[in-house]
Design goal:
There is one protein chain. Helix content is about 40%, strand content about 20%. The chain is of the alpha/beta class. The longest helix is centred in the middle third of the chain and has 16 residues, at about 180-195. The protein is globular, with a radius of gyration of 21 Å.
Length: about 290
């Protein structure tokens, strides 16, 4: 089932002096079962784009197709509750959404709101919390007692407990330390590869895109400027640089070594492989 934009535009404050076109005639189809990064400069339309996927924002013109639904400009969307259960949107700083007395109650709220029994909701909540790295000791604690990283995990667990088919993540690792960032990204990748979730992630972090994502969508001036595999996107660093995007450190290092005269194959994409490649050449010319 497609996740697609057909000539979609979105205008904020239409008809006022503050009118702003955030999306401009976007044609785009996301690949199902993949982990896709949406990247681009601040103000390029990334967050506006993904908020159309569960109808938090509606198109000013055009049509958004999500699963078996069409959301068309000028038409009141139907079945939004079901759609929002199937497409889980995790905002930047989702911990601000925590509100219940205990962590377990908070994570159970979503499933119960969608008609799941109390027993089943708690079962799902506990599974989601464990998946996010929060063990039994956190179940009865107030969300206010958690650290920033733990709040982030609890908020993400609240979305996962609803078992959405599509996960849409808007800068989900913002503010996390390197270890927390790595753990979160590994979790999202596991949900993609082991549980078949389609994952769409808005991020500024090219290291994350390089390591974890299958495909890349580049937004620029409200348009989908490029959509390609991550491998192709990073194969030539000039693509990143032409879009004012800083390539990952491993790509920059390979470029610098080539300029210094080293023969670095294009398929080198890890530090260990790069180190072995350099060692062989140094030894040969030693």
């Amino acid at each position: 089932m497609p996740i697609a934009f057909d000539k979609v535009s979105h205008i904020y404050s239409a008809g006022t002096p503050y009118e702003f076109k955030a999306l401009d005639d976007v044609d785009l189809e996301f690949s199902e079962g993949k982990m896709t990064a949406v990247i681009g400069q601040t103000g390029s339309g990334k967050s506006t784009l993904v908020q159309h996927l569960n109808a938090l924002l509606l198109p000013s013109s055009g049509t958004v197709r999500v699963m078996d639904r069409e959301i068309t400009a000028g038409t009141a969307p139907k079945g939004l509750k079901k759609l929002r259960g199937e497409v889980g949107l995790i905002f930047q700083f989702p911990e601000y959404q925590l509100f219940e007395e205990t962590v377990l109650k908070d994570v159970s709220f979503g499933p119960k709101n969608f008609g799941v029994s109390e027993e089943e909701a708690q079962k799902r909540a506990k599974e989601a919390l464990r998946l996010c790295g929060l063990d039994e000791q956190y179940d009865e604690r107030s969300p206010l007692e958690l650290s920033g990283g733990q709040k982030r995990r609890a908020a993400i667990a609240g979305i996962l407990a609803m078992d959405p088919q599509v996960l849409v993540l808007d800068e989900p690792t913002a503010g996390l330390d390197p270890r927390g960032t790595e753990e979160m990204m590994k979790l999202f990748r596991t949900l993609n590869t082991k549980r078949g979730k389609t994952v769409i992630i808005v991020t500024h972090d090219m290291e994350q895109v390089f390591v974890y994502c299958d495909e890349v969508v580049v937004m620029a001036d409200g348009k989908a400027a490029a959509h390609m595999s991550a491998r192709d996107f990073f194969a030539d660093s000039s693509i990143c640089r032409s879009m004012n995007i800083l390539p990952p450190a491993i790509i920059r290092t390979c470029d610098a070594l080539r300029e210094a005269g080293f023969d670095i194959p294009k398929e080198i994409n890890t530090t260990s492989a790069l180190a072995k490649c350099i060692a062989r050449q140094v030894k040969r010319h030693g």
